[in-house]
Amino acid sequence: MTAITGWRVTSGEASGAVLKLDEPVSFWGGIGPDGDIIDVRHPQHGAVVTGRILVMRSGRGSSSGTYVLAELLRLGIAPAGIVLTEPDGIIATGALVAAELYDVQMPIVTVSESDYALIEDGANASVSMDGDTAVIAVG
Amino acid sequence: MLSGEQGPAVALSMRIITELGRIRGATELVDIDSVHIDGCIFYGQAGLDFAQKLVALGGQVRVPTTVNVGSVDLIHPHLILQNTERERWVAQGGRDLMQAYVDLGCRQTWTCAPYQVDSRPDVGRHIAWAESNAIVFANSVLGARTDRYGDFVDIAAAITGKAPKGGLHLDAERGGDVVLDCTSLSPETLVLDVTYPVLGYLAGAIAGTTNPVFVGLPADVSEDSLKAVGAAAASSGGVALFHVVGRTPEAPTLEAALGSHVDAPVHHITAQRLNAARQELSTAREDKLDAVSLGTPHASVDEIAEAHAAIVGGPPLAEGVAFYISTGRSVFAEAERRGLVQPLEEWGVTFVLDTCTYVTSILRPGTRTVMTNSGKWAHYAPGNMGVDVVLATLGECVESATTGTVTWNRELFT
Questions:
Q1: Does the beta carbon of A87 lie under 8 angstroms from any beta carbon of chain B?
Q2: What's the pTM?
Q3: ipTM
């Protein structure tokens, strides 16, 4: 098992299988109402984000992505948690709003580039928080 | 505010503003003069739940707040198709959402171009605007200061009157990052309307989310042309601020526009590149024209007057072609006062107010090929609406609408 420390973007605890994306996906226009990647140009088109620890380098795309993530959280089909290498206000706002409305806490974490490389697609991962420090246990 | 002494809606909004500030690394908040809301387009229940929760908690905006288009034309509700279950859901949810933002104290502007109403913040003032074309216009053309705000944060800023002091609120973030040299373009090209959305499209593709600086554009280039540049650049890339040397407020000289970035890379924008970019945006493969859509961002009074000059007195609209102009209700009222509306409507123009032809179901089923003078519309409509587009001059749009056949000069730029 590998333990990685990161930075808390939003609070929460989660565990699930890693879905590591080859390139970032935009929630708006990129993830459909069933939680699958609908952007036909995305290399992992068709993959389902629901319940996964979604790992991608950064956010992407329209600010209306906040809306889509909040809606996925409302419906219970959002990722279990999200790991990025840089904070993203669009994704974070979706999680913050869903926490206010639906009492669901989806952790979002940033990690360094070198730690990002350690997280492999398909591995089991769990995310927990200690103040502003996030701990990701992989494998 | 966080502790709730100003009520639960303020506390909730402040939690979002302060957390976003922490996430973005802003060490303080800034007082803002105005807000433009984008969260009033209906994309699902969560957005409606959020707005209605703020209403239920007694939320009220504390700075002048304009609203973007909604999902419904409140003045011409029959224009919104309600043939499918999803269309009916969007129409009802869209109406409820727009009402919630009215209840929160927003002005009923329902336009993506609040800068065409009377919301024109002064140079250097801090604002919190959402909607990418409004953001880039406010930063670039007005010289006001807004970072990129989006759904939910916009209304939270309006209810608190504050925003995180980061990003484009700061001097250090407002310098140019890449120079786009347009000096080789011909005078004929520089006076064409369609030159500017294509320039914006290229700028977004080159600059991404950084700040492009145009050199070689006319000192009297119109606000409508700059609006087209910004809307396209914010669509093909994520541009939130551009400078036009000799025209926009923070760019009296190239040196001033670049600030500390004296060695910014230079890209030469040639007629050949413009022609190629326009051909790339124009996906249409058929000659039969189904519709024309003007007014993305919302048409100004000047643009409606130009359409009037191009249309009225000329040949009639061809059978089977729809012709839309989207605009805001206040611009529409001014156009009516000037006598521009009735002749256009008699010719066959459908004015779409409060919303836009690419965010909701307005185009007739079966519409395949649409001409537009908007780079933003051309960028989004194929994905959103499943139609093919040609990005064209106003003249080409009108001529094609009268013949029913798509006609455009593929090598227009020189």
A1: yes
A2: 0.94
A3: 0.94
